[in-house]
Amino acid sequence: MKSCLLSGPLAALALFLAGCQGIPAPGEKQARHDLGAVEALYRPRNSPPSLPDLAQDSSLTNLLAHALFNQPRVAAAFYDWSASVEDITVARSLPDPQLTFQAYIQNALTSLMPGFMQQFPGPGKLQARASVAAAGAQSKYFVFEQAVLQAGFNLKSAYYQLGLWTEQLRLTRLKLSLLEMQERVLRAQEASGTISLRELLQVRAQRDRLHDDLANLVDSGRPLQAKYKAALGLSPRQPDPPIPSHFEMPGDYPDSNALFRMAMDRNPELMEMEASVREAEAGIAVAYKDRVPDFNAGLSAEVYHPPFYWPQVGMTFPLWRDKLAAELARAQANELASKSRLKSSQIDLAADFAEKWFAYSQNNRNLSLVEGSLLPQARQTLDSVRAGYQSGPLDFSSLAEAQMALLDLKLEAAGVRTARQVALMDISLMVAGEMPADAPVLSSLHKP
Questions:
Q1: Which residues, including other chains, have CB under 8 Å from residue 93's CB and lie 6 or more apart?
Q2: Among 153, 151, 161, which residue's Cα sits nearest to residue 48?
Q3: Residues 284/285/288/290 CA torsion (nearest 10 deg)
Q4: What is the mean pLDDT of residues 278-306?
Q5: Would you say the C-alpha torsion 367, 370, 373, 376 has a positive or negative sign?
Q6: Which H or E element spans position 419?
Q7: Which long-range contacts (CB under 8 A, 24 or more apart) does 49-57 make?
């Protein structure tokens, strides 16, 4: 009975501590709030939200939603971020307490002392470790945001390339049909002796070459459709998505200077590296705190001779100065490396932005030339040739050549339009300024 009375305070203390919670570290509540806000949109109950079915008339917004919410790479980045937020709680928490038992035996058990021991890291150590974990969680968030942007980029890239392929297929079939019609007309003229065999053979050669180009173009659609399916986050065993019946083309961006400032301020990769710098700076604080000793305290109760308690206290002794110096030097080197990587990425971003902006400007000028000047002139030429053909002075070959020239310009316009859109997507990926609608990122959730 006495032993039960003695061990009662220890048992009550153990039960009390078992239900304890630590004090949240600075930034921990905000990190959990941000994670909860994104989780409610992106993975409610760890499942993707319901999305509209894919169809031929699916809008680009719906396609982007499938890409963002179904892409495994985005999910992996999200759960990496989620795990890093939990690391903050782990880093700022006390070590688990220990239950101890001591016994003295001299021919028989003469003393039995159950006890309780708790370790207390030195002042400021837990907070410093939590700061490292909080900066790491911020870094992981920006990795997730970059994954969201990359998923949107991959979808748009596959979408526009598929749109270009569809247009090329349509126009190439028109060209082939036109050549076949021209070949039939020339065959009849050659039979009547109006033209030479050489002219007929030239058109046949063009027809055969274009027929081969069409077969290659049809085959090239398979990898494009596979890329489109992968960008939507669909597995190989899932049915192939329908090819869109129409393709949307968003508008242009503002001036390059404004875009460049946005890129330097909002690029997720740069923001990830800035968080890595803060993580390295917090690591220096941890290295300095390692010079502070840790403490432990405990209490044991004598079962056989109550009431008798044995208090216990202890302290670590940071003796190995070379180890402490090495830890500090490592932390400082990590900080310098993080800052250097950030500066290098800023330099690379400036160069890449200039290159992508040039590509966009060049394609924009080319598209303006084709659509604003060359295509109208080709249509006027075709109208003039058609009028001449109908009145008699011109033959069908002249009409076919004018029609062929117009189709070639339409093909050129489709290619330049797609190239311009890809350049715009590259810029959007750098700037993070055109986040897809309903994207599960904090910038979208915080919009007024």
A1: 22, 126
A2: 151
A3: -100
A4: 84
A5: negative
A6: helix 396-431
A7: 54/232, 54/241, 54/242, 55/242, 56/242, 56/243, 56/244, 56/245, 57/244, 57/245, 57/246
Output the furthest CA–CA distance in the chain (Å, rounded): 130
Q: Over the range 183-202, which residues count as b (16 or more CB within 10 Å of their CB) and which as e? A: bebbeebbeeeebeeeebee
Residue 117 and residue 183 in contact, taking contact as beta carbons nearer than 8 Å: no
For residue 268 the two structure tokens come to: 């997720």
Q: Give the mean model confidence (pLDDT) for residues 328-353.
A: 87
Query: From residue 94, how far is each of 101, 122, 292 by CA, in Å?
Result: 22, 11, 16
Considering the domain 2-50+64-432 in this protein, what is its CATH number? 1.20.1600.10
Q: What is the pLDDT of residues 373-432, one digit of tens each?
A: 999 999 999 888 888 877 777 677 888 888 999 999 999 999 999 988 888 888 777 765
434 pLDDT band (50/70/90 cuts)?
A: low
Residue ranges covered by each domain of the chain: 2-50+64-432
CA 322 to chain centre: 42
